[in-house]
Amino acid sequence: MNISELSIRRPVLSTVLTIIILLFGLIGYNYLGVREYPSVDNPIISVSCSYPGANADVIENQITEPLEQNINGIPGIRSLSSVSQQGQSRITVEFELSVDLETAANDVRDKVSRAQRYLPRDCDPPTVSKADADATPILMVALQSDKRSLLELSEIADLTVKEQLQTISDVSGVSIWGEKRYSMRLWLDPIKMSGYGITPIDVKNAVDKENVELPSGSIEGNTTELTIRTLGLMHTAEEFNNLIVKEENDRIIRFSDIGRAELGPADIKSYMKMNGVPMVGIVVIPQPGANHIKIADAVYERMEKMQKDLPEDVKYSYGFDNTK
């Protein structure tokens, strides 16, 4: 007896089974993830290494080439490309589609670990990362202002917008593109330094020596115990300008004698623009299998409610939305 014959002889049973299948289909549809492209993890491994202060030639000769020579021997490599720039080396390894991503990542990590002995001692350890289809941002909120600096916009993006968006359901993470962080910038005058006989190493040693906070123990009594904290870190430009760099022949040379300190962005080499106006971008990354359209709708709704919490001169727009 086949299914067709059973359905004809027992119409009630076939009707009930059909209704059950429809119900399961409707229930499953509500839990079905919706996204523009399928979740496919390409077998691509990236190796990055930082060497602050080194030019592109040094990066290529001392970091990129030793890493490439070791990685080249891994089986299944389809292509190998690299970029050597100021202070940064990045190598992209693409494997054949038949290669397992986890196996490829482990092979690259082993080769990078072996090559580490040939790298400069003062460079940062190389990092190995895999391509992840679910780690691709689906939407970017752009913050712009004609009155505020990128430092102020970055602070608003971090403390206001990011905290609100990362609480949305099914959001894996929120990142800030083009973010500028506060840093104390020390500007040196080479002519004044030459006159005092001071080198940049002297300034570095003075900062390392004076701008430090060490554990100081505690004071114990019969019934109390007090923790001691030494306030050794400098926070203002005035404190850095008053830093003693050198003492000789009863003469004190402060940093203000050879340069100036000012609070500014840590990175001034790059920034983002949209329609010719500097901007800070907040990108939303979904969880695996999440409904991208539902997340995007929640972001739009949350940003409308958040408008009243933003300063009047800060405007937001959408740099891209992959759900549309």
UniProtKB/TrEMBL annotation:
The keyword Transmembrane applies. Keywords: Membrane, Transmembrane, Transmembrane helix. InterPro entries: AcrB_DN_DC_subdom, Acrflvin-R. GO terms for cellular component: plasma membrane. It comes from the Bacteria. Gene3D superfamilies: Multidrug efflux transporter AcrB pore domain, Multidrug efflux transporter AcrB pore domain like, Multidrug efflux transporter AcrB TolC docking domain, DN and DC subdomains, Multidrug efflux transporter AcrB transmembrane domain. GO terms for molecular function: xenobiotic transmembrane transporter activity. This is Efflux RND transporter permease subunit.
